């Protein structure tokens, strides 16, 4: 497990951080696990700090994590503390807004990189980004399709719904219910009450009827998740889907179910050379997690996301923004091309003009074609360079070649023993064809290229 920090000047750490970015970039089926650490920047107070929710609770009977314990339902006083605490927490979540880390998960989905997000949070902030939450029964016929469409698995339930402890009917938080809960009263279930009054009016026995209480649909310590079977089946499906990266955000990794999930998922991901990345303010135990986590980034979750955004900006753009950026770049290139002045049209009629500007000296060009040393200023840099010749220059070349090799004819002599090269042949390597068979560097020799749109095509038969 590599321990990384964002601001370190250490080049090794910088290199490892770039490996993390590379893993995110290359992932196609990413699993994300989030904890309370990602919601602190959303405006929801943390639980354990001096000013956290646990210490803000005024109850003298219940403190700390006991506020999430099922044992609260055994006592009237503790039940009141639970009710008011839940209403306070709900109030915070309604005001909170998704953080950079929540948005990162949303971008993963938009870029088809998100296999699943598992969260320990009950604030449901992901829904504000239109990520799908909510689990159905494992036995449901379309469970497989439902799970595939599910973005976020709420491992500890959802604070944004209330359910009856007797009939399990679900209800939204209404203003009236909030007033009752804030006052420390647990509301009775409207559905159970209606049933009770209905049977009472019919004169039926009421002793066997129970009117349930409404409580948030969260999973308390000491109770099982109502959809544990669905979650188990879904996790198995995700593992079979071959996830290639796991990113864990803002959790202490102390809950047993979460520990098991991370270890199982990490093993599967490592089997196919994927990476496990953990972003948190506090370090995990190396003895416990050293074999499961590849990179521990000691950082606020949003700070790392902002760092990632600099290294991999495209991930944080929508498809529309990407298309617009592409279009803008394309227009910029066209504009640049238009601003670039076109080459000056050549007055020469017979040969292409694409040549080094230094070659404007006629003598140098002629010398070069004849295999002689040109002046130091003139030097065709690239091989097979096209040399531009005027009519006068061409005549000089012909005459010079004739002097050097009088037996050969120039310019399409009918008596020539060698056939005239077809005019459609675009280029001729004079050196190769002419008098320098011993020269060992044909690559450096210039090439005369005929312009194809000329009226009179000269023929050089050597
Ligand atoms: Zn009920």
Structure classification: alpha/beta
CATH class category label of the domain at 2-44 and 96-156 and 219-324: Alpha Beta
Radius of gyration computed on alpha carbons: 39 Å
Question: How far apart lie the N and C ends?
Answer: 73 Å
CATH superfamily of the domain at 2-44 and 96-156 and 219-324: TPP-binding domain
Active site: 156
GO cellular component, one term: nucleus
Region (Disordered): 331-357, 402-450
InterPro entries: DHS-like_NAD/FAD-binding_dom, NAD-dep_sirtuin_deacylases, Sirtuin, Sirtuin_cat_small_dom_sf, Ssirtuin_cat_dom
Structural overview:
The protein has 462 residues and is α/β, with parallel strands linked by helices. Among the domains are: 2-44 and 96-156 and 219-324, 3-Layer(aba) Sandwich (Rossmann fold); 357-449, no CATH class. The protein is 37% helix and 11% strand. The protein is built from 15 helices and twelve strands. The protein has helices spanning 11-26, 53-56, 76-95, 100-110, 143-149, 175-182, 190-201, 228-240, 256-271, 286-289, 301-311, 319-339, 362-369, 391-404, 430-433, and strands spanning 2-4, 30-34, 114-119, 152-154, 157-164, 170-171, 214-218, 245-249, 275-280, 295-298, 427-428, 448-449. The strands form three sheets. It has a seven-stranded parallel β-sheet with strand order 1-10-9-8-2-3-4. β3, α5 and β4 form a beta-alpha-beta unit. The longest helix is centred in the C-terminal third of the chain and has 21 residues, at 319-339. The chain is elongated. Bound molecules: zinc ion (ZN). Keywords: Metal-binding, NAD, Repressor, Transferase, Zinc. Residues 426-436 have a biased composition (Basic and acidic residues). GO terms for molecular function: histone deacetylase activity, NAD-dependent; metal ion binding; NAD+ binding. Pfam families: SIR2 (PF02146). Residues 10-328 form the Deacetylase sirtuin-type domain.
């Amino acid at each position: 497990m590599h321990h990384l920090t964002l601001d370190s000047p250490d080049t090794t750490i910088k290199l490892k951080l770039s490996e993390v970015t590379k893993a995110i970039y290359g992932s196609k089926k990413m699993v994300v696990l989030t904890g309370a650490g990602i919601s602190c920047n959303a405006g929801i107070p943390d639980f354990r700090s001096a000013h956290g929710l646990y210490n803000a609770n005024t109850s003298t009977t219940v403190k700390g994590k006991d506020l999430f314990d099922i044992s609260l339902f055994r006592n009237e006083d503790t039940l009141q503390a639970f009710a008011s605490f839940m209403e306070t927490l709900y109030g915070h979540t309604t005001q909170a807004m998704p953080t950079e880390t929540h948005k990162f998960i949303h971008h993963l989905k938009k870029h088809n990189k998100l296999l699943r997000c598992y969260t320990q949070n009950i604030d449901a902030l992901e829904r504000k980004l239109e990520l799908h939450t909510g689990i159905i029964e494992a036995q449901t016929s379309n469970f497989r399709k439902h799970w595939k469409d599910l973005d976020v698995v709420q491992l500890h339930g959802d604070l944004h719904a209330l359910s009856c402890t007797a009939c399990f009917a679900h209800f939204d938080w209404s203003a009236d219910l909030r007033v009752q809960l804030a006052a420390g009263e647990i509301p009775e279930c409207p559905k159970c009450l209606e049933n009770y009054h209905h049977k009472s009016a019919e004169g039926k026995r009421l002793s066997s009827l129970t009117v349930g209480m409404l409580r948030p649909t969260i999973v308390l310590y000491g109770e099982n998740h109502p959809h544990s079977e669905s979650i188990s089946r879904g996790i198995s499906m995700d593992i079979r889907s071959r996830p290639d990266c796991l990113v864990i955000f803002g959790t202490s990794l102390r809950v047993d179910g979460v520990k098991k999930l991370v270890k199982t998922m990490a093993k599967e991901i490592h089997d196919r050379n994927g990476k496990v990345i953990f972003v948190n303010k506090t370090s995990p135990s190396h003895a416990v997690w050293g074999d499961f986590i590849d990179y521990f980034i000691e950082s606020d979750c949003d700070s790392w996301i902002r760092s990632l955004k600099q290294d991999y900006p495209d991930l944080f753009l929508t498809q529309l923004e990407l298309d617009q950026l592409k279009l803008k770049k394309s227009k910029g290139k066209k504009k640049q091309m238009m601003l670039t002045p076109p080459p000056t049209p050549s007055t020469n009629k017979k040969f292409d003009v694409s040549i080094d500007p230094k070659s404007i000296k006629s003598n140098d060009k002629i010398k070069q074609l004849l295999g002689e040393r040109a002046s130091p200023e003139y030097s065709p840099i690239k091989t097979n360079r096209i040399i531009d010749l005027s009519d006068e220059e061409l005549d000089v070349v012909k005459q010079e070649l004739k002097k050097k090799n009088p037996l050969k004819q120039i310019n399409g002599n009918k008596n020539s023993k060698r056939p005239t090269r077809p005019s459609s042949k675009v280029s001729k390597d004079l050196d190769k064809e002419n008098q320098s068979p011993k020269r060992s560097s044909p690559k450096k020799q210039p090439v005369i290229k005929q312009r194809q749109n000329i009226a009179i095509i000269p023929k050089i038969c050597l």
